[in-house]
């Protein structure tokens, strides 16, 4: 059988090929020598041939020796434009939606037949759809919304309208940027930071998806510094510097689910199935001890759960075949198959009519009867909440709050972060950088501009105390872990209390009592040694692992699914059930395979331990540049604003930040 894999947005094509092809016996993954590979050329996003991209992740694979990577015939032109503000904000901060550019966005939309407007979060999509609807000059039926929390029927209607050419604009999230081709789309608009080079490429590729046509994306900044990110993304695409994506390895919850599915479908023999799963990239390194633990888990739940019949899913027959004999187990398993869950989600339905989609229980739980909220492009009024279903009607008047979903903060990729740093330290000839030249000049005058090879640290004394800003450009998630680590280490040197905050560019530490920070102290704080030990001390890893375990337990079948006709379980019930299992296993079976998986995924995914380690080593190699600006700088102001979010005040966050920005702009003569 011949297998084809097509991609224009992967930076590690060789590893991706290994995920498609069986791992051959004798490969490095299987413990032997690697097979030979016939490598033609890797496909680049622009169609140019290049050497295979190196990957910081897993090592080389040895798929079938007949596999080859083949480049496209000719490059596809990609045009990246930006809506540059006429008067750039000197002190930008995150949290803006870019709605100040609504009129210019509308002009762009009306200049072509069909457009896609991409946002990074579902809440942003709802707000932009609402804003466009308020000024839409044509029939509202030509404006649509598409995101993952909408019901399948509403999403299908938007997709059908695009294919038929009946829609002028669809506001969407990543639910529409993968796996669908709409030749009728003339342009794509990206609102806010693309967060990644591959993401921008993927979204730009939705426009004019026809042979020989150039892709076109218009970037809409939500604050001035995002113009730097657009210039960096264009520069990275020109160099073919695309992020790698690594497939999961040894996901034992998925393997356990697969084993029960096979046992339910006719049975399996242990040795034969082990040989089969080892031919996949995901389980090529699966050893006998772990495999026996998986079999023990599906037979009796492991030693701690052996006394509970509900966890006895599979029986090994006399002929050595594993099968499912219990009809109750079979029913529950069929309802649990898959890794995507809607547990804890509240369905939104009209009192009379169909469903609209789902919102998170935490949001709807704060609403009272009669409260209005914005969802699915409508202003809705809550009638009642019953059995994890919110019954609504269309509100007659007024605006409503917009739901927020977990996972709404997407970190900047390492590749784009490093490119942004390089752009800051470059020649500033790109049109985006010329548009914010006053902001860059002010940053250089007050402090310094970041540059590759150096690590900028700003020490600012403000009315509310001392703030130390650091800019590794490694992404929000890494910076949050790094901030907690530095706060712990600095507190050990000088007994103190530290507040901290992070964004994609850097982090801020705010000690309760002012202390001096010299280069030697900062070097010691950033030392890569004893990272895991200090990270464990600085974070509540037990609680983080407990959260990670909940999803693993659901996929592995430890948490029974909601049955048809029964009231769906709430998030509180899910947390209680998974938390009890986590405590039992931690106390009585600490070596349980799912506990180890939760810890692995916590370090690799939530804490991004590898990226954090790389960041510390990178900081150790850099020249430190310590500055003491007289006031907050364009780079530090967004971080300072972020640190205000958790403080108690009689004013809302945006009012306080806006007032502070105006004061600084007056001070520096804007």
TrEMBL record:
Q: Where is the Helicase C-terminal domain?
A: 101-253
Q: Which Pfam families match?
A: DEAD_assoc (PF08494), Helicase_C (PF00271), WHD_Lhr (PF19306)
GO molecular function list = ATP binding; ATP hydrolysis activity; DNA binding; helicase activity; ligase activity
For this protein, the record's InterPro entries field holds: ATP-dep_Helicase, Helicase_C-like, Lhr-like_DEAD/DEAH_assoc, Lhr_WH_dom, P-loop_NTPase
Alphabetized, the UniProt keywords read:
ATP-binding, DNA damage, DNA repair, DNA-binding, Helicase, Hydrolase, Isomerase, Ligase, Nucleotide-binding
Q: Which GO terms describe its biological process?
A: DNA repair
**Ranges of compositional bias, category Low complexity:** 45-54
Ranges for the region named Disordered are 24-62
Could you tell me what this protein is called? DNA ligase-associated DEXH box helicase
The organism of origin for this protein: Pseudoxanthomonas winnipegensis
* Source lineage: Bacteria, Pseudomonadati, Pseudomonadota, Gammaproteobacteria, Lysobacterales
